[in-house]
Every structure is written in structure tokens, then in C-alpha cells.
Amino acid sequence: MRKIFLLLPVLILLASIVPAFAGTITVTVTVEKKIYYIDEMVFITVCVYEDGNPVSGATVGVEVRDPHNNTYYVNSATTGSDGCAIFWFKIAEGSVAGIYKVYASTDYGGGATVEEPEIFIVNPTPVGGEALPLDKVSLLLNIVSTYGNIIILAIIITLLLLILTRKSKE
Each residue's pLDDT tens digit in the chain (170 positions)? Predict the structure, then answer.
């Protein structure tokens, strides 16, 4: 009986130390592709890892926000043996074009969220035509994001030169 009383404080001490040595929980989120059109299915994969190992049976949640930061899609699921859960939904007619953000989290191991949201773009089909192929849209977005300020500056300089040449002809 005395041995049990001596063992009890050791067990209590160990129980308080174990949570401090719990593994690092990581949540990842990926989308199948970066650009979607109206009526296309979006597939999102959320995975949970503890010290790099997949966690089976963890509850995960996903939230998709539209370009105006409104909630577009919310759902939850349980991870499988690979540590992942898959979500899917259809881009509805009338959806706002632009950049959508995907957030994910788990309550496993005290909870964790993705560090940075995953993003994808909704590109509506132009009226009377077909949507631009993925490579042209990517190229256009890349040019605008990379050289946007330079393009605006070039337009302003061109307009100023046109104004100055017009005044010099008068």
C-alpha cells in the first residue's frame, strides 16, 4: 500500500509533463488547381500531421471566402488513415470573379490552423465567348501583378507626352 502512495506523486508528475512533450501539429490545405470556371468542381484536401506523421480520425474544418471576404463554403470532416479529408463543391452561376481564399483547421491536439490560406481564382466565361485557356489567364495575371506599376507609369508618361506635343503644336 505504501508503494502505491509513493508511486502516485510520480504518476501525477509524469501526467503533467507529457502534454509538454506532445508532438507538433501541422495542418495543410491544397486545391486541385489554381483557376476554376463557373460550374466546375473544386476539390480541397486538408491533412493533419503530428511530428510529420499522418493523423487518422482528426476532425478538420474548411472555410472558403470569396474576393469580398464573404463566406462561400464551410464544411467539416474526419481525416482518414492518410491523415487527409477531401472536400468538394461546385462554383455556382453568379459567383464573384476573383481570388478565393481557403482556410483549414483542426481541433486535434489542442488545435491548429494553416499558416497561410490556399488561394484559387474564379474566372467567369466571357459573354458570347469561351474562357481564356489557363496559360493565357496565368500569363495575364502574372504580367499585371509583376509589372502593374510599370504599366501604369508608362501610360501616364505616354499621356503626358501626348499632352505636351499637342500644346507645342498650338
Answer: 444 344 334 333 334 444 444 589 999 999 999 989 888 999 999 999 999 999 999 999 999 999 999 999 999 999 999 999 999 999 998 898 899 999 999 999 888 988 889 999 998 765 556 655 555 555 566 556 555 666 676 777 887 788 878 777 76
Beta partners for 26?
49
CATH class of 22-131: mainly beta
**Contact indicator for 135, 143 with CB cutoff of 8 Å:** no
The full set of domain ranges for the chain reads 22-131, 132-170
| 8 A C-beta contact, residue 78 and residue 42 | no
Query: What is the spatial distance between Cα 89 and Cα 42, in angstroms, rounded to a whole number?
Result: 5
The whole-model pTM stands at: 0.63
Placement of cell 452561376 in the chain: 93
Q: Provide the grid cell at 12.
A: 501525477
